[in-house]
TrEMBL record:
Keywords: Methyltransferase, S-adenosyl-L-methionine, Transferase. The keyword Phosphoprotein does not apply. GO terms for biological process: methylation. The keyword 4Fe-4S does not apply. GO terms for molecular function: O-methyltransferase activity; S-adenosylmethionine-dependent methyltransferase activity. It comes from the Bacteria. PANTHER family: CAFFEOYL-COA O-METHYLTRANSFERASE 3-RELATED, O-METHYLTRANSFERASE-RELATED. Residues 1-33 are annotated as: Disordered. InterPro entries: Cation-dep_OMT, SAM-dependent_MTases_sf, SAM_O-MeTrfase. The lineage of its organism: Bacteria, Bacillati, Actinomycetota, Actinomycetes, Glycomycetales. This is O-methyltransferase.
């Protein structure tokens, strides 16, 4: 464990003035339901995309609706026209981000599993955004160098929601393929920190600990992370701005 980590973990937690009314996990779920029923505005085609992914046996690990809407809004706020996604799964998060793009926008999504890609393509067609999405099948660490070799326009926004063992390499590639001013968002960036230490034997958890150190010392990234609660449990998102 680094000395910085020891100092942070040894600091006493401040008592919250609202500690006596801290919501239970059930209440967090109820609040998520309220948010999703009002401002999130998930459409029926997206709900069906989740149902079809479940029916096909895909793992139920897609982003929550309000998190998907956050990705859409970030893309719209930035005026992004080119988006890179690592980890398509059933295309649910892909559909949200594609909705944030203009009609001439492009989203390149990398997916390891041909089965997942097949389900995602059908879902994206149903959602009416397939014309903006290209799914590339294969290991991301093989596909990313090919994107670099193609020499296309840099990406404005990168969402990383793939296997965590290779998260450090994914972030390095994101910084390389994105333009200055682009935003990189990493999903599931907190939950593995709860029950592990930096020297854990679990490769995925060890990689999550490491990616914080890598980003903190990266010459081209400025970042923070936020903890989240709700239907996805206790987790968080890591946000990194590409500065040069």
């Amino acid at each position: 464990m680094s000395s910085a980590h020891q100092r942070q973990m040894s600091r006493p937690r401040k008592e919250s003035a609202m500690a006596s009314t801290t919501p239970t996990s059930d209440k967090y779920d109820e609040i998520d339901d309220f948010i999703n029923a009002t401002v999130t505005q998930e459409d029926p085609q997206q709900r069906q995309a989740v149902a079809d992914a479940d029916a096909a046996g895909l793992p139920h690990i897609q982003v929550a609706p309000n998190q998907g809407k956050l990705l859409q809004l970030l893309i719209e706020i930035m005026g992004a026209t080119r988006v890179l996604e690592l980890g398509t799964l059933g295309g649910y998060s892909t559909s949200w981000m594609a909705k944030g793009l203009p009609s001439n926008g492009e989203l390149v999504s990398l997916e390891f599993s041909p089965k997942h890609a097949e389900v995602a393509r059908a879902n994206l067609e149903r959602c009416g955004v397939n014309d903006r999405v290209e799914i590339r099948v294969g290991p991301a660490l093989e596909t990313l160098p090919k994107l670099d070799e193609e020499g296309g326009d840099p990406f404005d926004f990168v969402f990383i929601d793939a296997n965590k063992d290779d998260i450090v390499e994914y972030v390095e590639w994101a910084a390389k393929l994105a333009r200055p001013g682009a935003l990189v968002v990493v999903d599931n960036a907190v939950s593995r920190l709860v029950d592990t230490e930096p020297d854990t034997d679990d490769p995925a958890s060890r990689a999550i600990w490491k990616v914080y150190e890598v980003i903190a010392n990266h010459p081209s990234l400025d970042a923070t992370a936020v903890q989240t609660v709700g239907h996805k449990g206790h987790d968080g998102l890591l946000f990194a701005l590409v500065t040069e």
